[in-house]
Amino acid sequence: MALAASALDRLTARLIKADPPRAKSLCVSLLGDAMEPHGGAIWLGDLIALLRPLGINERLLRTSVFRLVAEGWLHAERHGRRSLYRLSPQGARNTAHAAQRIYGATDAAWNGAWTLVVIPRTTGNGLAERTELRRALEWEGYGMVAPGVFAHPRGHAQAAAGILESLGIPDKALVLSAQDLPGVGGLPLAALAAQCWNLDGLAGQYREFIRQFAPLEKALEGGRLPSDDPGAPAAAFTARMLLLHRWRRIVLHDPQLPAGMLATDWPGHAARALCRRLYWALFEASEAHLGEVAGHGEAHYRPLAAEALRRFGGPAAAAAEAIATGSPARASA
């Protein structure tokens, strides 16, 4: 028997009550996941309507949008009494940068190379600069292996250089490539993983994600909401936003280390697989609701970008995985 929309609403309402999402962060999740593939623009009234079922009232949302404009994420356009908000070039870049970590695979082979960012003491960096740089590098997944030395096994030198440039200190830090020397017998960099990253805490977050959303998958027998249930699209959209928001909140703090540096039963793998199956099981119905609320035949609301259909490997991969694992959630290919 397919899951009724009312039952899906109850499951999501329980999760929202236990851990209410923050308005600004949830707004970023919606803009990046739902609106960016449709052009990245939305009327304020539509944004309010979409986020109200997730516990975000109009006052909080208006404040959040105002802050996102001030921080350069959004551009505001006045059309009479209506306000249209559009992802700025910076917001689009931020969204695209985060997308690989949110939706992309993490099991690519590792060649053993590390990217290091070193802050020499003699460059005159102040405490505020060092603190801001450390925060930016940690957000990017870097761990501190020694005072002033940050490392990442999958880091891209261009991304590290971009961080330095954005902070206005491109000439005050070194960006290096490093590799363990064979036969030397020294301590391998990978041995510092537990010291550089809070892997136990991250594993706990992944287990909690599975605990929270596994009941939703169990309830999604057949993976489809009833087509004759008028509440199904709205329920699917709310569930999709909550799922993606919780996933995004964890995975953007995951350094995504190579498999050889993680426990064999690393819960991040199971959590990503669960998120993939649920995301695609909810996607079709949720898109119907999004189009109903935010589409209106407006020129700014574009057809779904093809890139969105490759998220988490695509709906066909999610459906095949669900069948192979005996999962009740079936993604619509």
UniProtKB/TrEMBL annotation:
Entry's transmembrane regions: none
Span of domain Transcriptional repressor PaaX-like central Cas2-like: 108-179
Transcriptional repressor PaaX-like N-terminal domain ranges (all copies): 22-90
Coiled-coil intervals: none
NCBIfam families: PaaX_trns_reg
PANTHER family in alphabetical order: PHENYLACETIC ACID REGULATOR-RELATED TRANSCRIPTIONAL REPRESSOR, TRANSCRIPTIONAL REPRESSOR PAAX
Name used for this protein in its record: Phenylacetic acid degradation operon negative regulatory protein PaaX
Species name: Bordetella bronchialis
